[in-house]
User: Fold this.
Amino acid sequence: MERIHEECGVFGVYSSEVKNLASMTYYGLYALQHRGQDSCGIVVNDGGVFTSHKALGLVGDVFTKEELAKLGHGKLAVGHVRAGVKGSINNANAQPLVVNHVKGSLAIAYNGSLINKNELRTQLELEGSIFHSTGATEVIAYEIIKERLKAPSIEQAVSNAMNKLKGAYCIVVMSPTKLIAARDPLGFRPLCYGVTEDGSYVVASESCALDAVGAKLVRSVKPGEIIIFDAMGVRSMEEHCGKVKPSSCIFEFVYNARPDSVIDGYSVHEARVEMGRYLAKKYPVGADVVISVPDSGNDAAIGYAKESGIPFELGFLKNKYIGRTFIFPDQKDREDQVRKKLNPIASVVKGKRVVMVDDSIVRGTTSGRVVKLLREAGATEVHFMVSSPPFLFPCYYGTDIKKKEDLIANNHTVEEIREMVGVDTLGYLDLDDLKKIALLDGKNSFCYACFDGKYSTEIPAPAEKSKFETKIDIVEKTKRH
Assistant:
């Protein structure tokens, strides 16, 4: 299942008037760039005419002023940022996907991981479907189109297709006249919508993207809910809601989401600060300064400092032009980026006992390098606090945690990991404490499978390596070099 593990961001907008939605979508995707740095795309709908541009690269590089101008104006638009895994980073997998069919056109942007993608794809291929990509987006598009041939509306087609989809998915679908947002019944991945002052409706993976385009958050899309935006206003279909207990991904609060986002009514920043507070209560140490591994460790470090009374200072300078190392698909790429990404501020740590707070240790490949940087800068002690429990199990729902063998906590004890990364103290957040934080308001229900192995769905069988994926990857690498 390695090749369908990805983390992405979706964005969509519906306006009652023709306007420059390309630029609006650009800023929305820019705010979601942390969710995917390998490819991006925008489709603008002007009276049923779809104009699109997508390519490998960051939003700011792919969408120049000239490219945005070519997209023109319209009443609807969808956008996407994608984080691929090794072997799947190519133009064919870039989104949104545009499909023309007998009843019109459709554009779709998707975030998640279908556990039955291969099963559905095989059946579609046996029926004559031809695929150009290796991801699940085409599978979902085909299923929607199949249902649209017999359904009275595109929203009903989406609902019917959802009966076949298993796993994690948030989708934004654009027809010639409608924008549709749908979230899987378990609610694995976040999705929300808001409204601008002029009445335009905006859908996004995270509320920070709404903020970026001046939209006020209305609410999160409910697990299983389908929301339709069109000339009639906003409508909701809830026939898939409440069939199963929601199981939202806790890793969104640990790492994926931006701290200024609100997911299912809960502030990501506040959750992470609480994680730091719990760490300080369980692991009090004598230290001179609390620092974070930026950026995802910042909020928990603030919480640790507040609870412990040890001052928080900026211990690392981060190169803002280097992406998040966790979502780099290749191991060597991740290690190379760490060397370029962080530089310790010697005056803050030299001769000091340092508490370093980070969000997680997954593969364990970067932590030792970061600690070495602190030692070289003169830190006399390094106490490493991790604002999540040990990662013990792979994820099948969209987070790039591939297999047990890649997880350092699955193969080593906490003491062994402490010695491996070279710190004086290593403290993990307890799973029970994490659950207390997540359930603070009594409303949310989360998936902790990467920590406790209790999956919300059946575990998918390992997928066979695709010869088509390999060929596509080789072609794309040749072009890029």
Observations:
- Residues 1-6, 467-481 have pLDDT under 50 and may be disordered.
- The longest helix spans residues 268-282.
- The chain has two domains: 2-247, 267-443.
- The domain at 267-443 is CATH 3.40.50.2020 (Rossmann fold).
